[in-house]
């Protein structure tokens, strides 16, 4: 993989490859699950325990090979079985003494051989293998009474895979030959070993005891147990899967991407067959643990990750990424990035919204364009329409938050909370310096910096009185375009224009007399055909002269 991350911890469709393998194993409801670790053992072991706290983590020693890995696992499982048996015998000393005496005289081990029954073995780098396929393999093993049952498939190019050598006539498996050890004739075989088996525990135990490293790789091959099982007269058979992708392994980033795309295609296919509309499957990605209801619509560019759950009638996308988000029925989420959030029924989010962890939007609520939220509860019918940051806040029901609002939640050391009540309306460009509370039905003025509580039904205004400093631009930035524009404007005003009082009086006079207002010589007036023509004021008959 050329990576600092162990191969089995690379992820696709929201799970590591180890996670996919363990999930498939757990679908069989086994008595025990053992995970063998070697490379980067600490990291892989920690991941395995996090996935399944009941899993038995087994450390493979420095002896390489799949056979040695399974041998270490079986030894650990046998030890667990012995411990359980010993705990039973503690309560019956007479039976315990009898068994030990029998063992001393050459009889069986007083605690038995260890694990019994079928043992399923699978590799940690086959992410598409599912529990249903494993169940079919196990069922065939039990039905036929096999010593070993192998899951196989056929591929066009079998280079690098172990070949299945079958007996003519019966079709039973004679041997599994690794590619490097295969003869030219055997390399022509297209049926390959998937590294997925079911063994009878006793057969496996005896076969592992006789394994060696006499092969091209110098490893202990699990496949050699097949030969020993046949030598004992046991039945070794194969179940051929007609879906090679199910048992395709990952050895590099190319295979990881290929299988990731294939797994996503299968996930989307299942959801579409269940009633979900996926407008563009080629740009839509849905993790295996996502839950979708019927009549959900996924628009192009949608990515749903983790434990995201979308209820019926909701529309997600386009260009939306949600991770561990719950979306209520009928909600719409457009061009939004969200994680660990809850979106209520019939709510609206986006476009260009960012929902950080802890966001809860109520029924028919709105988080609009260029809004960021974090650790905040926004009540039913309440709206944060645009250009705002709402962090560490509680907003009641049917409240409208004005544009460019910021809850100032951080004092440099601690986060503080803003509370805005129900049926409140906050003005545009408000700053709420937490901790602060705005009561139910209260209003706040535009441009206010609210640092004190606003009682219910009150108007909170906190802004400085406006004052105009005349001539400031020309003094501070002389000769600039702004200064020149200001100078021209003042020149126009001083060129005979009437003051406000005079303008009112003239308008009243014109209204009484029906006179046409004076048009300055440099102005234009419209002709009846819509064209403009320059005319001196003296040409306007009936005009009032200044």
Automatic annotation (TrEMBL):
Major localisation: cytoplasm
Annotated binding of Mg(2+), by residue: 125, 251
Region (Pyrophosphorylase): 1-253
Domain named MobA-like NTP transferase: residues: 4-154
Residues bound to acetyl-CoA: 403, 409-410, 446, 463
Biological pathway: Bacterial outer membrane biogenesis; LPS lipid A biosynthesis; Nucleotide-sugar biosynthesis; UDP-N-acetyl-alpha-D-glucosamine biosynthesis; UDP-N-acetyl-alpha-D-glucosamine from N-acetyl-alpha-D-glucosamine 1-phosphate: step 1/1; Nucleotide-sugar biosynthesis; UDP-N-acetyl-alpha-D-glucosamine biosynthesis; N-acetyl-alpha-D-glucosamine 1-phosphate from alpha-D-glucosamine 6-phosphate (route II): step 2/2
Catalytic activity from the UniProt record: N-acetyl-alpha-D-glucosamine 1-phosphate + UTP + H(+) = UDP-N-acetyl-alpha-D-glucosamine + diphosphate; alpha-D-glucosamine 1-phosphate + acetyl-CoA = N-acetyl-alpha-D-glucosamine 1-phosphate + CoA + H(+)
InterPro entries reported for this sequence: Bifunctional_GlmU, GlmU-like, GlmU_C_LbH, MobA-like_NTP_Trfase, Nucleotide-diphossugar_trans, Trimer_LpxA-like_sf
Region (Disordered) residue spans: 489-546
TM spans (from-to): none
Binding site for UDP-N-acetyl-alpha-D-glucosamine: 7, 60, 65-66, 162, 178, 193, 251, 356, 374, 389, 400
Region named Linker: 254-274
EC number, as in UniProt: 2.7.7.23, 2.3.1.157
Cofactor field: Mg(2+)
Free-text comment on the cofactor: Binds 1 Mg(2+) ion per subunit.
Subcellular location: Cytoplasm
Assigned keywords, A-Z: Acyltransferase, Cell shape, Cell wall biogenesis/degradation, Cytoplasm, Magnesium, Metal-binding, Multifunctional enzyme, Nucleotidyltransferase, Peptidoglycan synthesis, Repeat, Transferase
Region annotated N-acetyltransferase, chain positions: 275-546
Active site (record annotation): 386
Lineage top rank: taxon: Bacteria
One Pfam family in the UniProt entry: NTP_transf_3
Protein family (similarity comment): In the C-terminal section; belongs to the transferase hexapeptide repeat family. In the N-terminal section; belongs to the N-acetylglucosamine-1-phosphate uridyltransferase family.
Subunit structure: Homotrimer.
Cross-referenced NCBIfam families: glmU
Task of the protein: Catalyzes the last two sequential reactions in the de novo biosynthetic pathway for UDP-N-acetylglucosamine (UDP-GlcNAc). The C-terminal domain catalyzes the transfer of acetyl group from acetyl coenzyme A to glucosamine-1-phosphate (GlcN-1-P) to produce N-acetylglucosamine-1-phosphate (GlcNAc-1-P), which is converted into UDP-GlcNAc by the transfer of uridine 5-monophosphate (from uridine 5-triphosphate), a reaction catalyzed by the N-terminal domain.
Name the record gives this protein: Bifunctional protein GlmU
Annotated organism of origin: Isoptericola peretonis
Classification of source organism: Bacteria, Bacillati, Actinomycetota, Actinomycetes, Micrococcales
Gene name of the encoded protein: glmU
